[in-house]
Amino acid sequence: MNLQDMPSLPPTQIEMQPATDVVAAPFKQPAADGYILGGFIWRHATRDTSRPVVIINAATSVRCRHYSRFADYLFANDFDVITYDYRGIGESRPASIKGLQASWTDWGALDFEAMLQRVHREFPGQPVDVVGHSFGGCAAGLGASGQLIRRLVTVGAQFAYWRDYTPAHRWRMFGKWHVVMPLVTMMCGYFPGKRLGWLEDTPAGVVRDWSTPTPRYEKRPSGRAIHATTGRLPFVNVCAKILAISISDDPYGTIPAIERLLGYFTSSTNTHLRIAPEDIGEAEVGHFAFFRSAYQATLWPIALSWLQNGELAPGTPGRTVPRN
Known about the structure:
By secondary structure, this protein is of the alpha/beta class. The protein has helices at about 70-75, 105-120, 135-140, 170-190, 195, 205-210, 255-260, 300-310, and strands at about 25-30, 35-40, 55, 80-85, 130-135, 150-155, 190, 200-205, 215-220, 225, 240-245, 270-275, 320. Helix 4 packs antiparallel against helix 6. The two termini are about 30 Å apart.
């Protein structure tokens, strides 16, 4: 799926339907500030402290249902799994999001952190792994309990910094996401993405973070990343083994974009795997398609192997990008 084609596509074409062969239980979970989050949990009947539990962090303004089939797949491979929506999205949406106070930092520091706390409370002793799509990989570095994460797999994870967009589409994407989106948000009090076919409706604060012309987090001489406004130090608590997967036709997930985010995880060991669609016999994959069930036999085993063993399996398609 090409991102540039998305304005003409209805949201259902990038959203998975709920799984039908595995029963995932819905849940409600308050964040630290009391905001009620919603999601789904895949839990095995018998508890096993050696069984990992995986939290799936969604992309910006993509509902957690998009990841249901992938969650089924992990569950079938002996993982417990949690999916959830950030405040203002999907299962965590109030009656109106106009005026809702929500930002990328809130999605990570409050919402993802609430999931880490839930896992720590309800799955005591089990290893904690995370899969993060797009912004979801960033969110994994914003929770105060990041030290709990054992392994992290990110897919196309970056901050939507416009200078990192693929050159062929950079100005078109800049106009769409950094000019049109904030202007529409200013008029409406939120971004009405569903009406436009541009993902889900999105809180104004998240749009502000997305469309800001500079990276939301800065690197300091110490090597640590801090929030450009608050000065807080996210990411450094995460000591997980990270696999960053990027797809060569993803206009967001360029090598500079992926490497920019990986550079913030200064306490982690990182591997960047770059996959071209032709490596798996496809003409295109793009930013959203990784989690579609069509890629269960080709792309999903890459993430599974990392979650199971902390390393790439022999014969994994693609190439690793040398770290600077």
